[in-house]
Amino acid sequence: MKRFTSVFYFLVVIFVVPLVAPAQETNSARAPLPKDVYTDSRNRLPLIKREALDDRGKKAYDAAVSATNSAGAPQGAAAIRLHGSGVAVRWESPLGRALTELAILTSAREHDQPYEWSLHEMEAIAVGLNPSVIDVVRHRKPLIGVGEKELAIIQIGREIFGTHKLSSETYARALKLLGKSNLVDIVDLMANYASTATRLTAFNQQLPPGWKQFLPLPFNPPNDIYPDSRSRLPLIRSQAQNPAAAPGLYTRNLAPEGTGPAHIRRHQGSLQSLESSVGRRLMGLAILVTAREHDAQLDWTVNELAALKDGLEPAIIDQVRHREPLKGVGEKEAALIEFGRELFGNHNVTSQTYARALKVFGERDLVDFVDLMAQHAGDGALWAAFDQHLPAGQKPLLPIP
């Protein structure tokens, strides 16, 4: 439940508050929807009716409605997820473990995330993924001599993370090969690991000493980590930790204790504590930076309106919108914008940028900011894959091709 609440904290405005109508609709606001987009959902999947779902689906439907505080049907990413199988995808997908690990590796590769890649390469080999397919992903080779389903999964990841859109041709091929629920599951799995990659990269999570790093990176990660946690966050030991227990490979507890996303979460507060500490204005800015770096039109347009209402200055919004050099921006705003630009644009936050953000926000708030940005990055992947459009007549506020 926490996941839905966090993701839709700022998106709720789209359904409970009327969007600001443009004085004069632009051509893009009047443009007809693509042929593979449904008019009711304004994405590539039709809206689901609650009565058509089984008991599990009805519970998920009700949870989505409750989490978004929306009257009627779930919308956005929550509505898209309702088309999935409802199983624990990584472990129980009908596609099998080899293909789900391939989806995770593809997401890790497109985010240049060494920790995520290296742990999951070992797991992928253990569950039978062909090493030659892994090398295609690792080195971004042409998709030659790769099975149809493998090709579809890799191509989906390359497009949604590389160009922030998925072509109709790639979508149609994947839908035919995988089926609707499996396709939703695979994209959502990729989106979840994109969120995880965001957290790992922000805090420069490195592998434990002696563990091999298998991913060729275009940069050298900064050397600003704690030796025990191997990240920028000091070690917090789990109360359940057994110091004598060795980390088990190919298990559900793959990440060594004191490292990885579980350890990062130990440093979190909550969205409520973040709002109390920094206010909705800066939270809105974090979401806009994330939306801008992912060309997420829906996320940007909805949250620009919310951010303006919460007091974020139009001049700051325009500098983010047009990726302009920062001028006349306060220390907190500048630290947040530069952090997001490096995190999503370079997949590598420099020591200087991290230290600046840590100084102005403190550890807990910075971890919460990254968590907020990570969740919106994950939803951006779903919207890109299923071509989510704005409500009819709404003027797009983000200039993207």
In short:
The chain is an all-alpha fold. It contains 20 helices and no strands. The protein folds into 3 domains: 2-81, no CATH class; 92-235 and 259-264, AhpD-like (Up-down Bundle); 271-376, no CATH class.
List its traits.
disordered N terminus; AhpD-like; mainly alpha; 3 domains; single chain; 401 residues
Write the layout of secondary structure elements.
Blueprint: H1 2-7, H2 13-16, H3 27-30, H4 55-68, H5 76-81, H6 89-92, H7 97-110, H8 114-126, H9 131-138, H10 148-162, H11 168-178, H12 180-202, H13 260-265, H14 271-278, H15 280-293, H16 297-309, H17 314-321, H18 331-345, H19 351-361, H20 363-385
Helix pairs in contact: 7-8, 7-9, 7-10, 7-12, 10-11, 11-12, 12-20, 14-20, 15-16, 15-18, 15-20, 18-19, 19-20
Indicate the CATH architecture of the largest domain. Up-down Bundle
User: How many domains, in number, for the residues?
Assistant: 3
Sketch the major β-sheet: none
Number of helices: 20
What is the number of beta strands?
0
Structural class: mainly alpha
CATH superfamily of the largest domain: AhpD-like
Q: Order of helices and strands, N to C? A: HHHHHHHHHHHHHHHHHHHH
Rg, please?
A: 21 Å
CATH topology of the largest domain: AhpD-like
